[in-house]
Design brief:
The structure holds two protein chains of two kinds. Chain A is mostly beta strands. Chain A is 6% helix and 36% strand. In chain A, the strands form two sheets. Chain A has a five-stranded antiparallel sheet with strand order 6-5-4-7-8. In chain A, strands 2-1-3 form a three-stranded antiparallel sheet, with helices on one face. The longest helix of chain A is centred in the N-terminal third of the chain and has 8 residues. Chain B folds into two domains: 134 residues, Peroxisomal Thiolase, Chain A, domain 1; 216 residues, Peroxisomal Thiolase, Chain A, domain 1. In chain B, β10 and β11 form a beta hairpin. In chain B, α3 crosses α12 and α5 packs across α9.
């Protein structure tokens, strides 16, 4: 079903952008997916935050992801009372492990729910849900 | 310093209501405290410690509740780590008493989740304010969905089946049939569970806990003072608590908080797994029980499906759990940790009638708060009548 993407009609929750996460969300608007890497100890992290959780260094490098990964686990949601989601049942929620080794919560799209499997190779798709927010979802790799 | 046997749960009261449109949350809390004090023979004047958490409570609600009940305690704790909070509170109360911060502590919970028509498990639309929420809420993570993802992965890795999960629900319903105040008491079969609609795959309706109103309270005091009270004390041997979350994107999701809180509780208690006569395991969903039993170490990872099969979890089985019918059948007013400790205390006292576990001397309660598939807390406590 085509989605009306005017801000007023988009009824699902939107992320709150702040000083710490804005660069990540601005990148998704450009249809780019990033994770962070600590310049001191090399530890990778997602979601973005100002300090390395391993060594507490503030020195951070943004690593651009290839945009591919595999489904780590998923569920086909048949019931959600919340506005926005209630109108888009069933939908697939999943943890996807991107090739850089980090897991991200997301939706699997462009795939019949009954065909979704753990281990399925997927690729990022960028869903411009409002002029300010682009969500990173995944579809079966092509 | 060890807490072992320094303090005891001396009063335990489960509010009998399951649907209370005529009561307020604070009223249920206060009635529960009255019940727990009557149970042990103490009065509200003896209470100098208060621990509570709630779903409908604001950040400073413990102060408001003190106003409601005209309390001025010497010790306050409104730690809210989800449904496990009251298991953690029980341990916190014991620690506070052992440290001399108070003498008689009350742990209390009340909720009108059912009569307020709160969609606890399938209302995943809230935009939470934590940094992690910003990367989750846009994708519609319901509570049941977050647990379902654990079940899906467990089935994938270990061949766990829906039939094995269903047996947990069937056993809880059997126990509920022996609990006069349980909300759902008619027996169900594995086929009934599998025939119920899929809420969030692979979990069916009957894999999910119910929604009820309810409340309860515990009274905790020193072992010395416990000896003079009405009921057999349930001595606190040891406890542990912790959390699991996405771990900066690097989590192994089948390793849950129970692995750490359980290890701490066993180490601090000085008892072994074989010493546990019955356990109260938070059963928000059937998979919660299976994952918790594995992570507490009652069986190995991947063996949970076999472990929960063959009637082992029945009140008369090798490893009885949730003899009150659990959240799956008795009550689940939003946060259930309270009832884990209450039923464990009743079992140690021998007060459970037809569902009584024989020779019950040591019981374990483990609460899970939040969602295994996103982030959650775990709190474990081990108590004894010896």
């Amino acid at each position: 079903m085509p989605q009306d993407k005017t801000p007023k009609s988009y009824r699902k929750p939107l992320p709150h952008l702040d000083e710490e996460n804005r660069p990540w969300w601005e990148a998704t608007q450009r249809h780019e997916l990033y994770v962070q890497k600590c310049r001191e100890c090399g530890d990778l992290r997602f979601h973005p935050r100002a300090l390395c959780t391993n060594c507490m260094s503030s020195s951070t490098e943004w690593i651009r992801c290839k945009g591919t990964g595999k489904i780590y686990t998923f569920t086909v949601t048949n019931q959600n009372q919340a506005g926005g989601f209630r109108d888009s049942l069933p939908y697939v929620m999943a943890w996807v492990e991107v090739d850089e080794g980090l897991k991200m919560l997301t939706n699997i799209v462009d795939c019949p729910p009954e065909q979704v499997k753990i281990g399925m190779p997927v690729e990022a798709v960028f869903d411009d849900v409002t002029p300010e927010v682009t969500l990173v979802k995944f579809r079966p790799a092509r | 310093m060890s807490l072992s046997r320094k303090c005891a749960v001396v009063g335990a009261y489960e509010h009998p209501t399951r649907f209370a449109p005529d009561k307020t949350m604070y009223q249920i809390m206060a009635e529960s405290i009255r019940g727990a004090l009557d149970d042990c023979g103490l009065t509200i004047k003896d209470v100098d410690g208060l621990l509570t958490a709630g779903m409908g409570m604001g950040a400073m609600a413990i102060v408001g509740f003190c106003d409601y009940l005209n309390l001025t305690p010497n010790f306050l704790d409104s730690t809210n780590i989800g449904g496990s909070s009251f298991v953690a509170h029980t341990a916190h109360a014991a620690a506070a008493i052992a440290a001399g911060l108070c003498e008689v502590a009350v742990v209390v919970y009340g909720s009108t989740a059912a009569s307020s028509r709160f969609a606890i498990g399938t209302g995943g639309g809230g935009g939470g304010g934590d940094p992690c929420d910003q990367y989750e809420f846009p994708f519609g993570p319901t509570t049941v969905g977050a647990y379902a993802m654990i079940a899906q992965r467990h089935m994938h890795d270990y061949g766990t089946t829906s039939e094995q999960l269903a047996e947990i629900a069937v056993t809880m319903r059997l126990h509920a049939s022996m609990n006069p105040v349980a909300k759902y008491r008619d027996p169900i079969t594995v086929e009934d569970v599998l025939a119920s609609r899929v809420i969030s795959s692979p979990l069916h309706l009957l894999d999910c806990c119910i929604i009820s109103d309810g409340g309860g309270a515990l009274v905790i005091t020193s072992a010395e003072r416990a000896r003079d009270l009405k009921k057999m004390p349930a001595y606190i041997l040891g406890a542990g608590e912790t959390v699991r979350h996405a771990a900066r994107g690097q989590r192994d999701f089948l390793e849950i908080a129970a692995a750490q809180s359980g290890r701490l509780a066993f180490e601090r208690s000085g008892v072994a797994h074989k010493d546990i006569d019955m356990a109260m395991i938070y059963d928000s969903f059937t998979i919660t029980v299976l994952a918790t039993l594995e992570n507490l170490g009652f069986c190995k990872r991947g063996e949970g499906g076999a472990f929960v099969s063959g009637g082992r979890l029945r009140f008369d089985g090798d490893f009885p759990i949730n003899t009150d019918g659990g959240g799956l059948s008795s009550n689940h007013p939003g946060m259930r940790g309270m009832f884990l400790v209450i039923e464990a205390v009743k079992q140690l006292r021998g007060e459970c009638g037809p569902r009584q576990v024989k020779d019950c001397k040591i019981a374990l309660a483990h609460g899970t708060g939040g969602a295994l598939g996103t982030r959650h807390s775990g709190a474990t406590i081990i108590i004894t009548n010896q």
